[in-house]
Design brief:
alpha/beta
Length: about 325
């Protein structure tokens, strides 16, 4: 889907991004993780040509994006800005409708799409479509920003620190909604963050960046249980215990879980992490159940299954 080859950006004598390469499959979420100044946002901005690369190649569906007009490229990408990026003089509905209007969608089609997204993002249109951003909370503004990026149902979504302006409790709640949103299940997503927990919660793959380079590009379990070098190991050391549990998703241990009857109440899906399953178990003091959303099959999860999964990863290291 997306193939980046030796992407480089220099500003005078400063190398902001240094020969970065990665690929993202259709439907995957890649998180670019790193501290401020590591080059992650510059890399993201080059993908929709808000920043032009100094050298390198970017292919989307085998087409070199540097050979097509930027406006055409951006029509197939949603972009969620850090700090919401809403137009203060536009209503919520007008903010969401910006790109559909540029594409000359019929008014009725725009109205239906705006209302559909507001419902999905828990912002009832009868209450929110005509209000202005100044009256919204931080979490509500972030939902509107996401709705605007999704308005034309683009196949690719770019997100720059999408939850960075939210307080801790709101960030947790919005991230949970983000993971469960059906609009995102088949999208190819590249997300920038400096939040380690966020990266492990949302990413199928994580590119850990430092000084303009990717130090390791891997799945969350590989980063924690098989770090490429001492830098990677040190970067995650402070949160190692929790990250071990957050790096593995229930879908990764699905075949190790016993079958459960279809009549049980499943509260987790395969996308949830072992950490989230452990929290559920701590609250229930019993088994919890996970469901495969496509097949509707259910399986049982206990503390013993979670401990066995962690032990297996450690043995494979």
């Amino acid at each position: 889907m997306i193939d980046v080859q030796q992407l480089t950006k220099t500003y005078h004598d400063t190398v902001a991004v240094n020969e970065v390469s990665f690929s993202v499959k259709e439907g995957q979420t890649l998180v670019l993780l790193g501290t401020s100044g590591s080059g992650k946002t510059t890399t993201l901005r080059m993908l929709n040509r808000l920043t032009e690369p100094t050298s390198g190649k970017i292919f989307i569906d085998n087409k070199n994006i540097l050979s097509q007009p930027p406006e055409e490229l951006r029509r197939n990408m949603g972009y969620v800005l850090q700090g919401y990026g809403l137009f203060p003089h536009y209503s919520v509905a007008e903010n969401i409708a910006v790109v559909p209007k540029l594409l000359k969608w019929p008014k009725e089609k725009i109205r239906k799409r705006v209302d559909e997204l507001l419902y999905k993002l828990q912002l009832p249109p009868e209450q929110y479509r005509d209000v202005y951003p100044a009256t919204l909370s931080g979490g509500q503004k972030q939902r509107v920003g996401l709705a605007r990026a999704l308005a034309t149902d683009p196949p690719i979504l770019l997100m720059d620190e999408p939850f960075g302006a939210l307080d801790m409790l709101t960030r947790f709640a919005v991230r949970k909604e983000f993971k469960e949103l059906d609009e995102l299940r088949k999208k190819t997503i590249i997300l920038v963050t400096h939040d380690v927990q966020e990266a492990f919660e949302l990413g199928d793959k994580i590119g850990l960046m430092d000084k303009g380079k990717i130090r390791q590009l891997a799945s969350p379990p590989e980063l924690i249980f098989r770090p490429a070098d001492d830098f990677v190991k040190a970067f995650f050391k402070q949160h190692l215990f929790q990250l071990q549990w957050q790096s593995i998703r229930l879908k990764n241990i699905w075949n190790d879980l016993p079958e459960a009857g279809n009549d049980v109440n499943a509260t987790l899906s395969g996308g949830h992490t072992l950490w989230e399953a452990m929290e559920q178990l701590a609250n229930n003091n019993a088994s919890v159940y996970v469901i495969d959303k496509e097949t509707r099959l259910r399986r049982e999860v206990t503390f013993e299954h979670l401990k066995m999964a962690i032990q297996k990863q450690k043995q494979q290291n």
